[in-house]
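Archive transcription. Copying these from loose printouts into the bound notebook so they stop getting lost. Printout 1 of 2:
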Amino acid sequence: MARALLAAALVLPAAACSDGAATGAPAAAPVTTGVRSDASCLVPEVLEALVLQPDPAATASAGAVERGAPPDGFVADTVLVCRRGEPMRDSAGTWHSVTATRLEGDLTELLRLVAPGSTPGACTDGPPPQVWLVDALDDAVLLPAEAACTGTGDAVVAALDALDVVRRTEEPVSLAVRADADALGPGAPGARAARP
């Protein structure tokens, strides 16, 4: 009996440690990430989060993009926001597109909301905007995919809406409807926004 009690006493602390490791909040919190020099709304990680399929040939050589909060010492100067765009048409047909918007202004509130340890909300209303923080030298950090989700992410969206638009562009991503059987595939330049 004493031997059985001793065995139970040894097993319980181990189980407690195991449970703590499995349910600890820090594991779910965004961590800091590396800095890149090529912020773009056309990288595969952004397009996949926006439920858009990039042309494989255009992204075959692209390196994987890590996501996370900005590391210590990173000073954001502007923001690049990527959203699903309106359909675009050219001679090849109708394209899915992405809208890239560069924003500037007081980033204090936005940076507070996306600091290491913040917890993004759940995405329930379709793909949320994808957000890059960009410094004065154009180095950039891609925030977690859920950073601007509705719910707790509403504050992030509000912080983005408070900034000033510097530039907005539409980029074709993939051909949705071909103009005819002989139309060229993805990659056609000069695609323009579709008009009713």
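Printout 2 of 2:
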Amino acid sequence: MIDLIINNLYNVRNNIEQTEVLVTSIKEKERVFKFSSVETKDHLYNIYNDRLDFSIYRGDHFEGLAEVVEEMKNSDLENIRLSYIDGIKKSCSIFSSEDYSIILGIIFYDN
């Protein structure tokens, strides 16, 4: 089930409205998110901007990383929720408003 959710998120990643609908539908399901926490925008931006710089330097770029960093930079949100879904083939990190009403972006990782 988790891999199906990640695949669905991957398939709609370029359509923010469909992504928001999908995240809204899964946020209440038990055991979908391996973890979820709220941090300040500045804190998460600094961490993931550094990861972007490092990944560009190393040449190993995760899909969605640059878009998430840009959205965080331009966001008016004070706090951002980071939620992680761990699948068998892929995993992903979802960056959103605290209540998931605004999705900033998703980073996808191959396992």
